[in-house]
Design a protein that fits this description.
The protein is α/β, with parallel strands linked by helices. It has helices at residues 12-22, 47-59, 72-83, 92-95, 105-120, 136-141, 162-172, 195-208, 225-228, 230-238, 269-286, 293-302, 305-333, 339-347, 359-369, 389-399; strands at residues 29-30, 98-103, 125-130, 146-151, 153-154, 159-160, 178-182, 211-216, 242-247, 260-265, 352-354, 371-372, 378-380. Helix content is 47%, strand content 14%. The longest helix has 29 residues, at 305-333. The structure holds pyridoxal-5'-phosphate. Pyridoxal-5'-phosphate binds next to helix 5.
Length: 400
């Protein structure tokens, strides 16, 4: 039967990674893949994770299955973390309205959420921003859902086209549709909604009977934990139903452990009980039981005051390094012709910015300067360092 298969085009990011790996130039700059790197170019294990792993190795007594919705401590501590705001804790009546499940990374969470939407509202369209993370459409449409696109990033101003976004959704989205929103650190643009825009969007979604589906893959890596969850907490305050897909890949640097959380805020506790049973049954049909190790580490870190403090310091270190690199790149680009980029790079959040480069310009940077970014001009700022930023800015300005 396999002779009937047709080959698929290689994933663009993976092809870019391979091209960069094969480049022997010692001064190459890898801004491609969406993984945090430190000043030495490493993606190391966090100290808090190492300490939690040591503790776990000493105390763990079984490798028996975790339940179908995963580790309760993980799910609850994550919900308090991402939704708790200043208090760091959510009220019981909100917790009772939430159905959640541990997932295989943010991607697994997005897929569980898509399957749940398909079960509840098979005719709903899921709207995604233009552009969005390259895997959003394949992951969500594979559940059999229709997808639509709304305008988001303006490649000239390098900011969000908020009025166009609302006008488009107003004209095209129907009641009961779902709108996928990046909670913070928009991938691939780094351009986030302001708190005032989140306020307006939440009211708009309520009035239009649209359900927010918030992808929170970079919580804590933008402006800070309170700031990065503002939009999510706002839509939960205003809209009766919200879907959340959170990832611990980046903020806990647990990429290969595959740790994520799907959570749905329901109108009432009875509906939440039904949604819990649905999430469990969907998980059972796809992978039966989620992987335990990484989620247990997150639960242990968040549940222990010393480990939590250590993690918050490391998260802060990663975030501040990226903010500092943004400042350096912005300063270096702030010459004639680079002013818009300079302003955008400092204003944007998280790992990514999308520069106003054509495909040819991005390829020229690769061929002539060994600077690797996607054809769309997306850079991962964490792939740069203080030493190579001047060279990076010079090359960008040279190809423009
Ligand atoms: C916007 C966005 N959502 C979700 C994910 C999924 O992350 P993971 O499945 O690695 O946890 C990513 C990863 O790059 C992402 O950028």
């Amino acid at each position: 039967m396999f002779e009937y298969l047709v080959p698929r085009a290689p994933d663009a990011i993976i092809a870019l990674m391979q091209q960069c790996k094969a480049d022997t130039n010692p001064d190459k700059i890898d801004l491609g893949v969406g993984v945090y790197k430190d000043e030495a170019g490493g993606t190391t294990i966090l100290r808090a994770v190492k300490a939690a792993e040591k503790q776990l190795w000493e105390t763990e007594t079984t490798k028996s299955y975790v339940g179908i919705r995963g580790n309760d401590d993980f799910r609850h501590s994550m919900l308090h973390l991402i939704l708790g705001g200043d208090a760091g804790k959510i009220e019981d009546d909100l917790l009772d309205r939430i159905a959640s499940a541990q997932a295989a990374g943010g991607s697994g969470a997005l897929r569980l959420g898509a399957e749940l939407i398909k079960s509840a509202a098979p005719d709903a369209t899921v709207w995604v921003s233009t552009p969005t993370w390259a895997n959003h459409i394949p992951l969500i449409s594979s559940a059999g859902l229709k997808m639509g696109k709304y305008p988001y990033y303006n490649r000239e101003t390098l900011g969000v086209d908020f009025d166009d976004m609302l006008a488009h959704l107003d004209a095209k989205a129907k009641a009961g549709d779902v709108v996928l929103l990046h909670g913070c650190c928009h991938n691939p643009t780094g351009a986030d909604l302001s708190p005032a825009q989140w306020d307006q969007l939440a009211d708009f979604m309520l009035a239009k009977d649209l359900t927010p589906y918030v992808d929170l893959a970079y919580f804590g890596l933008g402006r800070g934990m309170i700031e990065d969850s503002y939009g999510l907490r706002k839509v939960i305050d205003i809209c009766p139903e919200v879907i959340i897909a959170a990832s611990c890949s980046k903020n806990f640097a647990l990429y290969k452990e595959r740790v994520g959380l799907i959570a749905v805020v329901c109108k009432d506790t009875d509906t939440a009980a039904i949604a819990r049973s649905q999430l469990g049954s969907i998980q059972r049909k796809i992978i039966s039981m989620p992987p335990d190790h990484g989620a247990k580490l997150v639960a242990d870190i968040l549940g222990d005051a010393d480990l939590r403090k250590m993690w918050v310091e490391e998260l802060t270190e990663m975030r501040e390094r990226m903010r500092d690199l943004r400042k350096q790149l912005s300063d270096a680009l702030n010459v004639q012709g680079g002013e818009t980029m300079a302003a955008a790079v400092i204003d944007q959040n998280g790992m990514f910015s999308t520069l106003p480069l054509s495909v040819d310009q991005a390829r020229k940077l690769r061929a002539e300067y060994s600077i690797y970014m996607t054809d769309s001009g997306r850079i991962n700022i964490a792939g740069a360092n203080s030493e190579n930023i001047p060279r990076l800015a010079e090359a960008i300005l040279a190809v423009l």
